[in-house]
Design a protein that fits this description.
eight-stranded mixed β-sheet, two-stranded antiparallel sheet
């Protein structure tokens, strides 16, 4: 049962045709070879077909990849690989491209090129990379011979070429650097960056600055409020007035005496006394025998001594308003203030 397997395998190999090359190139093909728009899918292009060309055009052929061993020959001066599906290029693709002057890679799917990708392309004059999702252009692309560079109009990739496209040292040859939009509009990279990219950076910086200013303002406000509260607390602790419990009629009572602050404080000793006196507009009830003043009844707390004449209170109605009187300089006289009288 094991012997028939070998003939069967040979039969299958004969039935399955080998993969055909993307292009058929004769050995005596022209050195200026134009294979543009052949309209056939090309999964991987065998670069061994192109060894004697000086100019090669391969655009619009749906090329997805190049064979890993692909190398340009020194004699190749112009290469057009635009409008294909290339996602990357072999790292050594230009390692022998000393004669390459024009390279067109626009409108592929290139996301990244190695840093030293263009190091040996010392004769490069024009480089077109627009229409690719590149994030940056390798610094080695800026050879002394470079005259024209085209990149996509995006702030990241434009920012990566801004400095070498605007050199100012003596004898500096500045290449013409353009960015191309998806609508094929062309802009100078410096102008595009100034109009479309710098204002975004300024907006972000302004937002950060505004947020910082707001944060500082909030801290200042918090410090001021904290200090005011501490000052208020200190004033209450060292002040002259004291709030007594709410009386039966719902109005607050205030009593002030310099003796409550302390005899050693000379400044406090000169402070005025304020009394909260509730006066009713009605006439006072005639004193009957055995009648006890309201402010001496047991339900009131604290009790005021009978012989103390500085706390005054009437049997006021709930709507009566407090009347304040300074009695420090009046001796033993009581002061009653009755509105409208």
């Amino acid at each position: 049962m094991g012997r028939p397997a070998a003939p069967l395998l040979l039969l299958l190999l004969h039935l399955v045709p080998p993969s055909s090359p993307c292009f058929t190139v004769l050995p005596d093909a022209s050195t200026n070879l134009n294979l543009t728009n052949r309209n056939q899918p090309c999964t991987e292009l065998d670069w061994g077909l192109f060894q004697r060309q000086s100019q090669l055009w391969l655009s619009h052929n749906r090329i997805e990849a190049l064979s890993p061993s692909s190398r340009l020959e020194p004699r190749l001066e112009e290469l057009d690989l635009s409008y294909n599906r290339l996602r990357d290029l072999p790292a050594a693709f230009l390692s022998r491209a000393q004669g390459l002057r024009h390279l067109q890679l626009q409108h592929n799917m290139l996301r990244e090129l190695p840093d030293g990708f263009f190091a040996n392309a010392t004769a490069l004059e024009t480089l077109q990379l627009d229409g690719n999702p590149l994030r940056a252009v390798p610094p080695t692309a800026f050879q002394a011979s470079l005259r024209l560079l085209a990149v996509p109009c995006r702030c990241d990739v434009v920012g990566s070429v801004l400095a070498p496209c605007a050199c100012s040292w003596p004898n500096c040859t500045v290449p013409q650097c353009r960015c191309i939009t998806s609508q094929h509009d062309s802009f100078n990279v410096t102008d595009f960056h100034a109009q479309e990219c710098r204002h975004g950076v300024a907006l972000v910086a302004g937002s950060v600055g505004a947020a910082g200013a707001v944060a500082v303002l909030m801290v200042v406000i918090a410090v001021v409020v904290c200090r005011q509260r501490k000052a208020s607390a200190a004033a209450v602790g060292a002040g002259w007035s004291k709030r007594e419990p709410t009386a039966a009629h719902g109005q607050p009572r205030y009593i002030s005496r310099t003796t409550e602050i302390g005899t050693g404080d000379a400044a406090a000793a000169t402070a005025p006394d304020y009394e909260n006196v509730f006066m009713s507009p009605c006439a006072a009830t005639a004193t009957a025998q055995g009648w006890t003043p309201g402010w001496q009844e047991e339900q009131h707390s604290p009790q005021v001594p009978v012989d103390d004449d500085y706390f005054l209170e009437s049997e006021a109605d709930p709507g009566d308003q407090p009347i304040y009187a300074n009695t420090q300089s009046l001796g033993e006289d009581n002061v009653y203030i009755i509105p409208n009288q």
